[in-house]
Amino acid sequence: MKTINKIIIAASFSLTTAQINAATNVLPNEFQIEVDQPTFVLPQFSGPFREREATVAPEELETAERLRSMLDQGKKQAVLKELEAFYDIELSVAMIMLKAQLYFALEEYSKAEKAYQVALNRSPQLVRAHSDLGQLFLIQKQYKKARSYFAKAVALGANDAVIYGQLAYLNLTQFGAYAAISAYQQALAIEPEREQWQQGLFVALTEAKMYQAAEALLSDLIAKSPNKSSLWLNQAVLKLEQNDSLGALSALELAILLGDNRESNLKTAAQLHLQLDSFDRAVELINTHLSNYKLDLASLNTYLTWLSQRGLNSQSQHIIDTLETKFATFDNKTKSVILLHRAKISQENQQLESAKKDFQQALNFNPNHGEMLIAYADFLASQKQFTQAETLLLRAEALDKTQKQAMLSRAQMYVDLQNFAAALSVLKSVATRYPSTQGIRQQIDILENILITKAQHTQS
Prior knowledge:
By secondary structure, the protein is mainly alpha-helical. It has 24 helices and no strands.
């Protein structure tokens, strides 16, 4: 009997440990730090006659100067009307490019595309037409076409930081980090101070796991701008990628100190502090999060679960106390979570009446709160109220998220009651539904042996 109890409990513990790991363990990819992402630069109308490859025909010079004057006065529609009065064949490539750019500026994208294609038909290696088409498709979110035209512009000799930067961004999003690094480096070589290229290159290097190069880039940027919180966030990401939790936390704290109080970053900092046993600061950050942002049910439950698993009941109680004044404003699911954790604290402190009252209220607020149903059932079982406990566990089993844990808890309760046949039946159901459950087969074997032994004793 003692052996069976021990093994069944071990199975339950195995499950509990897995859940704890899912909530608290320290795998770097479970942390979320919100940083600035690579972006592209929105194209703007660049004005006429700045194209080096396409020239105005001699007979158009007078018209071109007049149109330039009109454009200087902001008369884009009037200029376009004049150009539309001509057949394309009557216009030089430069004037067709001007017409295309005006369509682009006036957001008549289909007409702009058609005009650019006319220009390319007459001058296929016109770099400006390729790059403008790239921008035209970029702004319309046709990224594959945009990348194709930017790549063609670069192949034809474009030496513009924006083109390199946009090609890098599209390569990063379509083909991964390695395809983006060179283009970002080219953009940065032309415009070394531009933030988009710096951020893009850092992200590409980090995603490519070229940590040494990313670290070197970041160190240089931080040396130039030590008070820029976004750089310290990047540093935190880089440290997490390298499993350096302490380094990540130091960088994250600096970012917070410099004014970055984004919700996910506060949450990650609190989680890192808990991992490193810096509980006071963790609680401080949790309070800051809960004070500055609308209460998020998942975050609240996560925080209280972390603290509970660390045995920090007084800190949990403090957080719950701070929520008391707002309690009436919360929805029923949130109220149920708060009451569940308050009940657990009371149970831990042997305040059993208070615990039962809070469990019952939590149940009333959210009858489908699976975690609460199991906790309440375990509490009732500890008070030898087995029938009620069984009812709650059966309800928890009806919920997908808590089905397995509830079944294991019910099996454990039957073992405690020495109802081995019932326990065996439940465990067999667990094995059928969750065949990968650790140790389940051994437990079934032991229970079957116990039942055989009991039957033999009865017969003798």
